[in-house]
Write the structure tokens for this entry.
Amino acid sequence: MKLCDPALFRQECYIGGKWLSGQKTIPVTNPADDTVVGFIPSLGGGETRQAIKSAKDAFPSWSRMTAQKRSQILKRWFAAICDNKNDLAYIMTCEQGKPLAEALAEVLSAAAYIEWFAEEAKRVYGDTIPMSQEGKRIVVLKEPVGVCAAITPWNFPSAMIARKTAPALAAGCTVIVKPSELTPFSALALAELADRAGVPPGVFNVITGPAEEIGSALTESSDVRKVSFSGSTSVGRLLMRNCSDTLKRISLELGGHAPFIVFEDAVIDVAVADAVESKFRNSGQTCVCANRFIIHESAYAEFVEKFVKAVEGQLFVGSGLIADNNQGPLIDIDAIEKLEDQIQDAIQKGARIATGGKRIPGKGLFFEPTVLLDVTSEMKILREETFGPIAPISQFITETEAITMANDSEYGLAAYFYSRDVGRAWRVTEALEYGMVGVNTARLSSEAAPFGGVKMSGIGREGSKYGMDEYLEIKYMCIGGI
Ligand code: SIN
């Protein structure tokens, strides 16, 4: 791997401040060309318990350290990430496939979460409450929840780790990260930089290996007081069940099926540009990607014509390491097969392909950016999350119909709509059953905003002051005899 600092490419786990290899290893392949990027240890329950012990041992001193000192350490980690941003982006593109420009943007977004929560560490305020009895006072304290586990996905190998661990560490918790075995090297590079930044041993740990074995050890342990997971709804439900025996706090950022509504009074060129960006970022592999387009009948012809033209003219598929390519590979063969299945099902039920529709033969897991027209609600593509570069388009006539179509999903993560009518902006936002709504924008992620969903899209919020609350317990002190 061509890095300015080759020491960032670690093939061991980081537990208790030490690098640990395993007897068994797992190969990690580059989805753009099927080559092996490297090997990671295949660790299991024993090593997970060792990581939990390290995190538990480190908790008293980390949680009692002044917020000022924790903040300074996190700021050094932020600076180290910024200083090494190009290497981190390169590692990410090699293991995940996304274009280098997107990988770099993600690294900077990860750094932004760490910087933001480094500041927030100093602002964990409590409360005083007027008492109803004489001679007593009520004081509310905020305390770190304890040892936390972060189980993170392959689609954002750095940002999801930062979004979970930065508030946890800022609050005074210690953390065990279990990254996806498809994209572990970004996580291990972050651990190397945390070590260099002076994060004390045991405060931040990264363990790799089979998800089920490590996940079970994390959920079974009563020493782990919180699990935060980003990934599929089915795994999220399983984790929630497994956390119930030890009554852990839980945050779940799960699947999405974001509707993208264009009303008749929208600025069509803006809607088209945002639709392309939102649908095809990370080749459609984000939870908040526009997953279905719901276009007013009077804007439909213009939107479709301009959207298809943009998809055909602005998207370049190929290795993310080659400049100009803005559509990388899908993560694995299952992802490709899911797209083929959704397209076949839609066509059988009456949809038409406006462009794309096929996997690209040869090395790597590439798929043509695809637009499907005449899509209806009984098609799988409007029911299942797609997680790939297919844009299904349907039409509506009334505002009520658009809202009904948008809410006709078990998911409730992100929704977008385009309209210049300020009354409609409030009305539709309030009617949408989603955790996040973009009005005339399809870019929602920010370290300063509460990211999260409702319904089957999850529980809890990440980012912002609300994201900090997820790692804090409330303790109420009642003082008598005053
Ligand atoms: C996701 O969680 O899939 C999206 C994250 C982002 O938009 O930054």
User: Anything to note?
Assistant: The pocket of succinic acid is lined by residues 155-156, 159, 230, 286-288, 445 (CB under 6 Å). The first helix runs from residue 45 to 64. The domain at 6-254+457-478 is CATH 3.40.605.10 (Aldehyde Dehydrogenase; Chain A, domain 1).
